[in-house]
Amino acid sequence: MCKKIWASIVTYNPEKNRLRANLESVRSQVDSLVIVDNGSQNVDDVRDLASQFDCHLILNRKNEGIAFALNQCVDYVTEHGDVWLLTLDQDSVCKEGLIDCYKKYLNAENVGMLSCGIYDRNTGIVSNGIIERHLKFKSYKERELQFVPVAITSGCLMNACVAKNIGGFDNQMFIDYVDFDYCLSLHESGYRILKVDFVGLLHEIGHAKKIKILGRDCILTNHSPIRHYYISRNTVYFIRKYNRYVNKISITTELLARVFIVPFFEKNSFAKLKAALKGLLDGIRMKLR
């Protein structure tokens, strides 16, 4: 018998029509849906949509961060039994048939999470959301199934009871690297991440665009200064937490490029440089709250 499948969306000042499209794409595919709102200024819009789509709504008075909100989702759905949980960003849109595709693999051996192919609406790039170039272990195939080391949270289907049992998401990270941290926590607990051969999510990372830097194709995310701060800080934290799994030269080189080069190719460069430097220093000092 198939376990119940829930979906969760974490919101923070969402664009109402994009959130509506998200809900329309997923609501009929799952048994139930929970929204955790992180102190949005337009919380009335969130309430309205939650009511329209029959979603359970958890309201935080302030922005507690994506990790904290995801843990709230896990806590809530596990109160309702053995549940698989589809985690979505507020602006992601699921493709029809995603859950049906995932259901084929729910009984795969030692699988704690399923991921899919992702289409980025800004760059046009199709990927599975993995960033494994800095890790010492790579994707591999087993009996025609593809297993990956990491995947972004949006669009993934996770075993919520497994998430609960291994301690969930690291609240100290707040945002950025929260997903990769959880993936390595899964691996350390003996679970695997299975990537299905299905492009199941329309997504975007920041306001990304492709450019060339020193003759190389690069993706600029055009994140806000606060995101530059957390990317820098949490990259250092991630390296220190999982140093045995990480190619430190590779990931440190990219980190330094993010801090000292990338901001100058984006708007508001000085504020982003300042934030990235502060994040780098806080990561080194392990100042995480």
Mean pLDDT value: 89
The helix count comes to 9
Strand content: 25-35%
Intertermini distance: 43 Å
What oligomeric arrangement do these chains adopt? single chain
Alpha carbon gyration radius: 18 Å
Biggest sheet, in brief? 11 strands, mixed
Sequence stretches where pLDDT stays below 50 over 5 or more residues = none
Q: How many runs of DSSP E, i.e. beta strands?
A: 13
Walk me through the topology.
Layout: E1 4-11, H1 16-26, E2 32-38, H2 43-52, E3 56-60, H3 66-78, E4 83-89, E5 93-94, H4 98-103, E6 111-120, E7 126-127, E8 140-142, E9 145-148, E10 156-159, H5 160-165, H6 178-188, E11 192-203, E12 209-213, E13 216-220, H7 225-241, H8 248-260, H9 269-284
Parallel strand pairs: 1-2, 1-4, 2-3, 6-11
Antiparallel strand pairs: 4-10, 5-11, 6-7, 6-10, 8-9, 9-11, 12-13
Helix pairs in contact: 7-8, 7-9
How is this structure best described in words?
Strands 1, 2, 3, 4, 5, 6, 7, 8, 9, 10 and 11 form an eleven-stranded mixed beta sheet that branches. The protein has a two-stranded antiparallel ribbon with strand order 12-13. The protein is globular, with a radius of gyration of 18 Å. α2 links the parallel β2 and β3 (56-60). Helix content is 36%, strand content 26%. The protein has helices at 16-26, 43-52, 66-78, 98-103, 160-165, 178-188, 225-241, 248-260, 269-284; strands at residues 4-11, 32-38, 56-60, 83-89, 93-94, 111-120, 126-127, 140-142, 145-148, 156-159, 192-203, 209-213, 216-220. It has 289 residues and is an alpha/beta fold. The N and C termini lie far apart (43 Å). The chain is built from nine helices and 13 strands.
